[in-house]
Amino acid sequence: MLKIVQLVLLSLVLISASGCGTKELLGLGGKDKNAYAGREYPATSKVTTVFQPTQVPKSCRVFAELLVQLPPKISGQQIEHTILAEAGKRGADQVVIGQARQSQDNDGIQFLYYGPKKEYPCAEQWDGWKFGYALWEKQGEWVSVGYKEWGKAEVSYETPLVMQMAMLRCR
């Protein structure tokens, strides 16, 4: 009888522990962050890029805040293509690219969505890169992915990267 009680208690501990391990991987409403859960827009074919929220026109609204994980040996041109393809698929007219760091993970290309719960006007309510901090703070050295590197085939990154990004709809 004692062994059955011990087995039941051990099972409960394992179930509880497994729930804690997945909490960090969950996005809005308990969904996987890789699964986009925001407002659905028709796909777009022309997405512009800015590197400062102050460059965003007043008509633009933020509808997705995310971190992008990128594999090693990726070029600036591949980064641009990958990000703009995902943004276009989601219906973005513009993306804001934030900072980049060397990633601790090498899981290929991943778009980790963090919100927002409700879209908002970028020019009036932008509050900075405050999402995904638990993952962001664990990353490595800072990496430059800006005007000089964006879209350049000759620029290559030897380590995996993680980048901040926001998608906007402008109408």
Write structural notes for this entry:
- The protein folds into two domains: 1-26; 33-170, no CATH class.
- With 171 residues, it is of the alpha+beta class.
- It contains four helices and nine strands; from the N terminus they run H-E-E-E-H-E-E-E-H-H-E-E-E.
- The radius of gyration is 19 Å and the shape is globular.
- The strands form two sheets. Strands 1, 2, 4, 5, 6, 7 and 9 form a seven-stranded mixed β-sheet that branches. Strands 3-8 form a two-stranded antiparallel sheet.
- The longest helix is centred in the N-terminal third of the chain and has 22 residues, at 2-23.
Briefly say what this structure is.
With 171 residues, this protein is α+β, with helices and mostly antiparallel strands.
Largest sheet: 7 strands, mixed
Order of helices and strands: HEEEHEEEHHEEE
Low-confidence stretches: 2-31
Shape: globular
C-alpha end-to-end distance: 68 Å
For the CA atoms, what is the radius of gyration? 19 Å
The helicity comes to 25-40%
Helix-strand makeup class: alpha+beta
- Number of discrete helical segments: 4
Topology, number of strands:
9
Q: In what range is the share of β-strand residues?
A: 25-35%
Supply the number of structural domains: 2
Q: How much is the average pLDDT?
A: 85
Quickly list its features.
171 residues, alpha+beta, 2 domains, seven-stranded mixed beta sheet, two-stranded antiparallel ribbon, 9 strands, 26% helix, 27% strand, globular, disordered N terminus
Topology (SSEs and partners):
Blueprint: H1 2-23, E1 48-50, E2 60-70, E3 74-75, H2 76-90, E4 94-102, E5 110-115, E6 120-121, H3 122-125, H4 133-136, E7 142-143, E8 156-157, E9 161-170
Parallel strand pairs: 1-4
Antiparallel strand pairs: 2-5, 2-6, 2-9, 3-8, 4-7, 4-9
